Amino acid sequence: MSATAAPGTTPPAESPTPTLPTSTTVTTGTTSGTEGKTAPAPATAPGPAPAARPALDWRIRFGALSLIWGFSFLLIKVGTEGYAPFQVTLGRLLSGTAVLAVAMAVRRERPPRGARTWGHLAVAAFFLNALPFSLFAYAELTIPSTLAGICNATSPLWGMALSLVALSEDRPTRRRVAGLGLGFLGVLTVLGAWQGFSGLDFTGTAMALLASLSYPVGWIYVRRTLAGDSSSTLALTGGQLFLGTAQIALVTPLFTSAPDGIPLLPTLAVVALGALGTGLAVLMQYGLVEEVGPTTAQMVTYFIPVIATAAGVIVLGEQLSWNTPVGALVVLAGAALTQSRARSGRASGGRTKTEDHP
Description:
This protein is mainly alpha-helical. It is built from 13 helices and three strands, in the order ββαααααααααααααβ. A three-stranded antiparallel beta sheet has the order 2-1-3, covered by helices on one side. A hairpin with a 2-residue loop joins β1 (about 25-30) and β2 (about 30-35). α5 (about 145-150) packs antiparallel against α12 and α6 packs across α7 (about 175-190). The radius of gyration is 20 Å and the shape is globular.
């Protein structure tokens, strides 16, 4: 989902925090701008100076984003060793919100306005942050982080199936239907269906799959309700994270008790999970979408389960049978097919709104 990623395809993030769409931010070729906010220069004025290039090449930032989101599942697992799942989610959202609040202050962004916008953001925060973050944390109490990362990769499959029902502009094609079937076959391979799902924790696996389903539900809702909002993407995402934090803050005291202490490693894991995977990653992906476009930026989705699996095996020593990586590759192939589009120009004037990236 997603992630952090914007609605339209997949998370991420572990879609960490999907970037919300806005009708004003667009990318045209390699140049990004804000519609309706820049008056044309007089004929005698010199042309605008080219935008400053980021200090780091986009490929380096792409790789860093893949690592951050891929390691998120390992950080969740470590966090749950010292804190209850709701506490992990609360700490994660607090850290991520703090990062975006600083970014908004630096860029002098104003929070979204209007009760209607905040109401829609509250629903988005539930489906894109509070619910999936909590479900993944609870799932990793009983399943390996590698399996959680692979379950997250099914989000594009859920998204394609849901969009065919909820979004009239999304029409089924043979390629996308084949991708859905291939992805489902990959899930059965990962879960070892031919062995009768022997040794599988059904509750934890179901929670991880439900978390991956929650992302496209949220993306579709945002696409239908907030795509025309005049607020910036950063402001909408910051408001969404703030509301998600408030939701979890209300629930956590009801289902958990205060921890006996503050264990160092789990605390560092939770802070890193929020500050990097839910805060910094959103800003990095937003920059990638502006620089190279959503199609390239969304490719990060296909690296996440690979990195999550490698991290779980190498760092945490989790066991890996042959069907897990093989099934994961089949899932990713199916997900790639479901996101494919015909080349016959659905874009208008070369512009791609940020809502189309994962």
